[in-house]
Design brief:
about 260 residues, 8 helices, Rossmann fold, alpha/beta, binds adenosine-5'-triphosphate, globular, four-stranded antiparallel sheet, ABC_transporter_ATP-bind, 2 domains, P-loop_NTPase, ABC transporter ATP-binding protein
């Protein structure tokens, strides 16, 4: 369990001729075990926010604290899952998952094998260990990516549109699996999505970002019992209410952008 605090994050991409302010003074705390989604108009800085929290880019201003300590780059305390599965095409499912464990210095071959197998099973890929990415569907590839990240047990998951490339049915199955994993392991999650319904189904809290430069515009608590399943949740008054409010908030930004 880990708390993540984003303090006054500003990021400017400076490519010499032109500079783009992607984030403007974003502050946000994600409590231990909390699931927070970030939504907002295209180009508002959602991915930038995730890269900064992942430690892949240094913010121009501000800092990120994990359990009170400032981060200085990527680390195994934070596992990142992208929309593109980022698997090694020349490695099998087993080898891809084992690769994740290299970062945490597990020495024993048996231990590595057993841990990899545990997470391959956890994401429902028993029997597919020796297959290569090209032999897998999109949903299976994303399961491998999730298993590879879970295998080294990061306390924090940073997910950038992880289900964006999947069909509706596969997406719903993986959303449910993700929630089950969260309940079992109490991960702290920062989840980026375009999909307001997805954010409302999965999250404890939704942050709406303003149009570029991205600021944390508005936040919505979500109190939904996801265990009743997608169909029942999607028809519940709480779900309809929160999606309406979030949609309105995002839509205001699109109008502002259109006028600007
Ligand atoms: N490497 C870069 N160099 C310069 N500008 C960049 C770079 N990466 C992103 N940007 C700009 O920063 C702003 C924020 O981009 P970012 O990808 O974080 O937004 P986003 O909200 O994730 O977008 P989308 O929803 O379309 O994926 C955009 O104006 C984008 O063009």
């Amino acid at each position: 369990m880990s708390t993540v605090a984003l303090e006054d994050l500003t990021h400017v991409y400076d490519s010499g001729a032109e500079s783009v302010k992607a984030l403007d003074d974003v502050s946000l705390t994600i409590d231990s075990g909390e699931f927070v989604s970030v939504v907002g108009p295209s180009g508002c800085g959602k991915s930038t926010l995730l890269y900064v929290v992942g430690g892949f880019i240094d913010p121009t201003h501000g800092r990120i604290l994990v359990d009170g300590t400032s981060i200085t780059g990527p680390g195994t305390d934070r596992g990142v899952i992208f929309q593109e599965y980022a698997l090694y095409p020349w490695k099998s499912v087993m080898e891809n998952v084992k690769f994740g464990l290299k970062h945490v210095g597990t020495d024993s071959t048996e231990e590595v094998e057993a841990t990899a197998q545990k997470y391959i099973s956890r994401v429902g890929l028993d029997g597919h260990e020796d297959k290569y990415p090209k032999e897998l569907s999109g949903g299976m590839k994303q399961r491998v990516a999730i298993a590879r990240t879970l295998a080294y047990d990061p306390k924090i998951l940073l997910m950038d549109e992880p289900f964006g490339a999947l069909d509706d049915q596969t997406r719903e199955i993986l959303q449910r699996d993700l929630l089950d994993i969260c309940n079992e392991t109490q991960k702290t999650i920062l989840f980026i999505t375009h999909d307001i319904e997805e954010a409302a189904f999965l999250s404890d809290r939704i942050v709406v970002m303003s149009t570029q430069p991205g600021t944390s515009k508005e936040q919505f608590e979500v109190n939904i019992d996801q265990s009743v399943g997608h169909d029942a949740v999607y028809q519940s008054p709480e779900f309809l209410d929160v999606t309406k409010k979030v949609r309105r908030s995002v839509h205001e930004e699109l109008v502002i952008e259109g006028n600007g």
